Amino acid sequence: DAKTTQPPSMDCAEGRAANLPCNHSTISGNEYVYWYRQIHSQGPQYIIHGLKNNETNEMASLIITEDRKSSTLILPHATLRDTAVYYCIVRSHNTGKLIFGQGTTLQVKP
Amino acid sequence: SAVISQKPSRDICQRGTSLTIQCQVDSQVTMMFWYRQQPGQSLTLIATANQGSEATYESGFVIDKFPISRPNLTFSTLTVSNMSPEDSSIYLCSVGDTTYEQYFGPGTRLTVT
Questions:
Q1: pLDDT of residue A87
Q2: Which residues of A touch B42 (CB under 8 A)?
Q3: Which among A5, A40, A49, A106 is most buried, taking Cβ atoms within 10 Å?
Q4: What is the DSSP string of chain A?
Q5: Which of A33-42, A94-103, B19-28 shows the lowest mean pLDDT across its residues?
Q6: Residues A6-63: pLDDT tens digits?
Q7: Nearest to B31 among A43, A44, A96 (CB)
Q8: For testing the chain A interface, which of B101, B108, B109 should be mutated: the one with the most A CBs within 10 Å?
């Protein structure tokens, strides 16, 4: 399973876009990029996933570079409730396993 | 999406004892996963439990310590055996197939004294 690298922490002003980067330089062709978040004391929550095209849903947008070695999760209008640990995960659709790294702690400030 | 419940939600146990954690899903699912989250740490995958086959354990986890049952497509149990304080963690059940999102239960908070 490919490893991911994320900054340990980030701050974002409420109402502004939060851009969370992730490096996954060893990703292979059949591996997808998944994003989850974990709000304190709760189970992780699915946000979005993609293979090579950019994706958007009601929660966020996922931008994957053309070489697929990095990606950015965008929360377009961050709120205080978006304060959480965000995990970028490279997942094989052969095994289905999610292997978590250390994630990025996003602090949204008023 | 799948709704997952876990029992117990929390427990305090004495060292040397065992605790069985239950995971119930509101729909049939192919794959179930068990994770551990030690205090202040990220999640670590313990094992993959598919119905009708033996659980597959990740490196560092063994069946004698963490036996798993998967009797049907909506239920699984994880037992933490011969507990020590180092087993104090949150244990999470997760379900999903290989190609879509996985859903996580609320977790079981275990404290071993």
A1: 96
A2: 85, 87, 100-103
A3: A106
A4: ----B--SEEEEETTS-EEEEEE-TT--TTEEEEEEEE-TTS--EEEEEESSS-EE-SS-EEEE-TTSSEEEEEESS--GGG-EEEEEEEEETTT--------EEEEEE-
A5: A94-103
A6: 999 999 999 999 999 999 999 988 889 999 999 987 899 999 999 998 999 999 999 9
A7: A96
A8: B101
Where on the phi/psi map is residue A78: left (φ > 0), alpha (ψ -120 to 50), or beta? beta
- CB of B39 closer than 8 Å to CB of B88: yes
Arithmetic mean of pLDDT, B42-56: 90
Cis preceding-peptide flag for B8 (omega within 30 of 0): yes
Q: Give me the residue from B97, B102, B107 closest to A98, CB to CB.
A: B102
